[in-house]
Design goal:
The chain is α+β, with helices and mostly antiparallel strands. The protein folds into 5 domains: about 25-180, no CATH class; about 250-380, no CATH class; about 405-505 and about 510-605, no CATH class; about 720-875; about 950-1075, no CATH class. It has 37 helices and 28 strands. The strands form 8 sheets. The chain has a 9-stranded antiparallel sheet with strand order 20-21-22-23-24-25-26-27-28. A 5-stranded antiparallel sheet has the order 15-16-17-18-19, with no helix packed on it.
Length: about 1100
């Protein structure tokens, strides 16, 4: 150190290391095979720990110095920032310097820790002078006290009085602030603002009721019912045309989803093939089919939730549409035929298909899938998952597409030009950097001198903001340059896939997204819940800045994406010129592509190969005694021996024989129908239970494994035997005779009807067909008689809950009766051969309409499923019944006489034009004392209107109105024309001792009650929402006394009873309203 030249060189080295970081000290990471400096990691200290110490060791001798151990606590905090936060190394250096300087052999750390306590007390004193917040002062004082306690020093220590005084001053300041708050009686000024002279009790209890006031004025001004109030004009939306020349319009879905689904399923069954033949070569066919499949499956999945029969038909229809899409896509791009689409051939075996026509469609789908699988050379993973394989679809398509090969050349040519320009830019900014650094090195730092008496201490200091040398150096260090990232992946196969994905042909994109959506969304719905959790940051090919201008196709569901960031958006995207080289500036593409589902935000390998529809195509046993036997319904793989071995699992509510009969009914595909026949004879199973219906119908309707490559299935082979069919019908006739006198057996009757319609569908023997027709007509007569018996009980019942239950039971019977017509098209004309048959089906439809609640939410699941089956059957029968009624009116006339004793046939029935084909109308006879009335009948929903009004119940618009639902929930009321002036309907029977009257005034439902001379009207809650608290609105029914003007708040649970203890409101002068109680 005595050598001045050495000291000068050492000082220059230290100054250089303090201001510049050599490239060799930066940590380096490898990203996409490019080496780049990592600015987020700490700098390697080797130039000090290795080089500098090596130099000193070579010119000097080792010295024994004071050594200390320091817990550095090098915390690193980083989130959404360019660089992480680290503890200040300067602060660590200061503390080490202090500790080594104050350390002695006798008391190594005493003076350092004492100084730190004194220093913290000094800072606390400055904080008191600056009036920092109380919480900060308290924490600072507490930390000082804790350090003093750990040191265990006494008050005689010279520096302790200063510390004690500072802490005491802090506590005094905190106490003073708290006492100021305590002594202020009105810290927010609310009490002083109150003036007793302004108190007015009358004004304070007066309610403005700005919303209710205009409503009450309208009550008085409401006029009579217009004379044309009861006119009827059908408001039917356009429907899908049943022809091969018109494709279903997706926008019709918005108007009526249920109608659209039914029409579309029928169109697909009857007209899809003919339409495809005519439009297969059209460039927009794939787009039309893909859009239709997406809309259909999305809507049907919602509408058909928890209904395995409807879901099965949805899956079958979706596969019919997909077959058409697949044929069309292969027509345009034959390469697709080399790839397996990924549908397992046995996927659709669990479908519930009650009709033979549906079984034939299923067999056709299975044959097509089998042929596609045998003809394909590659698996579905090369379509939906793998993008870096030689046989990946994108790679293979690129190899034969001159358009995509030309696009790759264009991308690489442009990228090469941009890279050369980036190198020239690096040369320019590097030259600028060295010029600025050279100018800085040639100058000396400028100091600013202050004279005595200034606000700073005497002397001079260095201000880098006003220093020319520092400004030049800072300008040089702030020079940045952005990296150039190669736009395409480095691997040859990944590159080809990326170029293909930039411009996927529309037909291929539609086919791939639709096929994938069916595999994942429709046939594997259980994975939707798993996929909602992943929300990691993803970078897609189509949004990468280097390729945006080359994107030639619209965004789609399946996209190439990467978790790894591209260089241009990572913190490597911009570099200091001092660190930049051509190697770390011109980098490879940083993205690592995989196929990703942009809808579910998940990688496709996690979502595929999980297709299974068995659960959604199986009835769910309701909670109760049979709930644990769900396995016996779901599949046929369990054996009778396994059931015997599990007798200990028999529910307590079942005897062991019924448990065994229930659990073994589906043991084996080929044994199911034999087991059903055996149980019909043995009668061990309780056929009056809904669980038994689910089990038997699951066995009867489920398709099962195919046989001989035809529409025949293994599990239904027995139904092709004539003798078995005749024997089964004989047994069914006996059990029907056992229940026909007791309408509690409606569930059993439903089971028998389902078995016979299934037998009629699958048997090819005319003898069996004739016996089935006879049984179904007999079952129909039994159900109709039950309906009339229950109807008589309804008329005699006065109990509201009993009436509701009887209505539901009559509804179930009518639905069961209607189900006797649920057969294949070739059998329907035999079952509608006579006018009595026509009358039966119309009577059933009218009964279903009249007995069904307007709001079906909350109905038993079995009834909801039956209503959906009834709607589908009515839709199927619509053209048949329309033609029958127009040809021969006797059937509908008989039906109307059954439900309306005063009906007098008059003019011929006529059908309305499109789109109101469902409506039939006639005018009754006006002979004698009868007056002519216009009658409308809706074939689809069974509604019957006389002069535009329902015959026995309120219109659906009344029953679904919010005001009606608040008071009557889902009750169905028998009504007659109103006897109150200005009203339309009134209840046939009294409700809680009073007659209830109804009228619809524009969109407002008016409900009034009359008891002797007292007339009250319900006020809808929307007229009170802005005037009263929510509890006063939603927990009460509000009745306006039309005689006195009082409004009474009645608790909603007792809405029909007036009480003097209820809240009441009245107006004294039509301006001020007040609310009182008692």
């Amino acid at each position: 150190m005595a050598d001045s030249y050495f000291r000068e060189a050492l000082a220059q080295l230290l100054a250089e290391l303090d201001t510049k970081t050599p490239l060799e000290a930066w940590p380096v990471v490898s990203k996409s095979h490019s080496k780049v400096p990592e600015i987020r990691d700490s700098i390697h200290p080797k130039f000090v720990t290795d080089m500098l110490t090596g130099i000193l060791r070579g010119v000097g001798q080792p010295v024994d110095v004071v050594r200390i151990h320091k817990r550095t606590r090098d915390d690193v905090l980083w989130r959404k920032a360019l660089q992480p936060w680290r503890r200040s190394p300067l602060w660590l250096l200061l503390r080490v310097t202090l500790q080594t300087s104050l350390r002695t052999e006798a008391v190594p750390d005493k003076w350092y820790k004492s100084f730190m306590v004194y220093f913290m007390a000094y800072i606390l004193k400055q904080a008191l002078a600056a009036s920092l917040p109380s919480d900060i002062l308290f924490i600072m004082a507490a930390k000082i006290s804790r350090r003093v306690l750990k040191l265990a020093v006494n008050d005689e220590t010279p520096w302790m009085p200063y510390v004690n005084q500072t802490i005491e001053a802090a506590h005094l300041q905190l106490d003073k602030r708290w006492k100021t708050i305590e002594q202020n009686p009105d810290p927010f000024g609310t009490q002083s603002a109150w003036k007793s002279a302004k108190l007015s009790l009358n004004d304070d209890v007066s309610l403005t009721v700005s919303t209710l006031r205009p409503y009450l004025a309208n009550v008085a001004a409401r006029g009579e019912v217009p004379s044309n109030q009861h006119g009827f004009t059908p408001d039917c939306r356009p429907r899908i045309e049943m022809c091969s020349s018109t494709f279903p319009q997706v926008h019709l879905l918005v108007a009526d989803a249920v109608m659209f689904l039914a029409d579309l399923e029928l169109w697909v069954q009857d007209w899809l093939d003919d339409w495809l033949i005519a439009n297969r070569d059209s460039p927009i066919t794939c787009t039309l089919l893909a859009e239709l499949i997406e809309k259909f499956t999305t809507t049907a999945s919602s509408q058909y939730a928890a209904n395995p029969e409807n879901i099965s038909l949805m899956l079958l229809t979706a596969m019919d549409l997909w077959m058409a899409l697949d044929k069309c896509a292969i027509q345009h791009y034959p390469l697709l035929s080399k790839y397996d689409p990924g549908f397992p051939v046995a996927l659709l075996n669990p479908l519930l298909l009650p009709k033979k026509s549906q079984m034939k469609r299923l067999a056709r789908v299975e044959r097509y899938l089998t042929e596609r699988k045998y003809a394909s050379a590659y698996g579905s993973s090369l379509l939906f998952k793998d993008v870096d394989k030689e046989n990946s679809f994108g790679v293979q398509y690129f190899n034969q597409s001159l358009q995509h090969q030309e696009k790759q050349r264009a991308i690489e040519t442009a990228a090469t030009i941009e890279r050369e320009e980036k190198k020239r830019e690096l040369q320019r900014v590097s030259a600028q950097y060295y010029r600025l650094m050279g100018e800085s090195d040639a100058l000396s730092c400028e100091n600013v001198t202050y004279q005595p008496g200034s606000y700073r201490d005497r002397g001079s200091y260095h201000n880098p903001n006003n220093c020319r040398k520092c400004q030049l150096k800072r300008n040089a260090q702030n020079l940045n340059i952005s990296v150039h990232e190669w736009p395409l992946p480095e691997g040859e196969l990944e590159k080809k896939s990326a170029v293909f994905e930039l411009d996927v042909p529309t037909a291929i994109s539609n086919w791939r997204d639709t096929t994938y959506a069916l595999l994942v969304d429709v046939f594997s719905p259980q994975i939707l819940q798993d996929s909602q959790q992943n929300r990691e940051k993803i970078y897609t090919l189509l949004t990468f800045s280097g390729l945006k201008r080359y994107v030639g196709s619209d965004a789609r569901r399946l996209q190439l994406a990467s978790v790894a960031k591209p260089f241009v958006v990572a913190h490597y995207g911009t570099k200091k010129v001092s660190q930049a080289t051509e190697e770390n500036l011109c980098v490879n593409n940083g993205l690592r592509y995989s196929m990703r589902d942009s809808k579910l935000h998940e990688w496709t390998p996690k979502l595929l190969n999980r297709c299974n529809v068995r659960r959604m195509c199986a009835f769910r046993l309701p909670s109760g005694s049979y709930e644990t036997l769900q396995y016996a319904l779901d599949n046929t793989t369990h054996t009778s021996n396994e059931v015997l071995a599990s007798q200990s699992a028999c529910p307590k509510a079942l005897n062991i024989h019924e448990f065994y009969a229930f659990a073994t009914l589906r043991s084996g595909d080929r044994l199911q129908w034999r087991n059903i026949a055996r149980e019909l004879v043995a009668r061990v199973l309780n056929f009056a239970q809904e669980e038994t219906y689910c089990l038997v119908v699951q066995a009867a309707w489920q398709a099962g494994r195919p046989r001989d490559g035809s529409s025949a299935r293994e599990s239904h082979a027995d139904l092709e035997e004539e003798e078995f069919g005749i024997s089964l019908l004989s047994v069914l006739g006996e059990v029907l005779g056992a229940i026909e006198g007791n309408w509690q057996g409606v569930v059993a009757l439903r089971i028998f009807v389902a078995l016979v319609t299934r037998l009629l569908s699958l048997s090819s023997h005319s003898r069996v067909h004739g016996a089935c027709y006879i049984f179904l007509r007999r079952a129909r007569k039994v159900a109709l008689q039950w309906i009339r018996d229950v109807g008589q009980q309804c008329q005699a019942s006065q109990d509201t809950e009993e009436l509701r239950m009887l209505n539901l039971r009559a509804l179930e019977m009518a639905l069961t009766c209607h189900g006797t017509f649920d057969v294949d098209k070739q059998h329907i004309f035999a079952l509608l051969a006579s006018k009595e048959d026509i009358a039966d089906v119309i009577e059933c439809s009218i009964t279903v309409h009249d007995r069904c609640p307007a709001v079906t939410d909350g109905l038993p699941k079995s009834l909801e499923a039956m209503l959906q089956r009834h709607w589908r059957l009515s839709h199927f029968l619509e053209p048949v019944l329309r033609n029958k009624i127009l040809t021969d009116r006797d059937g509908i006339d008989i039906a109307l006489r059954r439900v309306w004793e005063g009906y007098q046939p008059g003019r011929d029935w006529v059908g309305m034009g499109s789109p109101s084909e469902r409506w039939m109308s006639t005018e009754t006879s006006s002979e004698g004392d009868y007056s002519a009335m216009i009658v409308h009948y809706n074939i689809l929903d069974g509604s019957l209107l006389v002069n535009g009004l329902p015959l026995t119940r309120l219109p659906r618009a009344y029953e679904t109105h919010k005001t009606y639902c608040r008071l009557f929930s889902k009750k169905v009321l028998d009504v007659v024309p109103s006897t109150m002036r200005g009203m339309v309907f009134e209840t046939r029977h009294e409700v809680c001792g009073q007659r209830v009257h109804f009228r619809m005034c524009e969109s407002e439902l008016i409900i009034r009650t009359r008891k002797e001379t007292d007339v009250h009207e319900v006020i809808p809650i929307h007229a009170l929402h802005d005037d009263f608290p929510r509890a006063f609105v939603e927990d009460y029914a509000h009745w306006l006394d039309l005689n006195t003007g009082f409004i009474e708040w009645r608790p909603l649970k007792d809405a029909w009873t007036s009480s003097p203890d209820n809240w009441r409101m009245r107006s004294y002068d039509q301006q001020a309203f007040s609310l009182s109680r008692g």
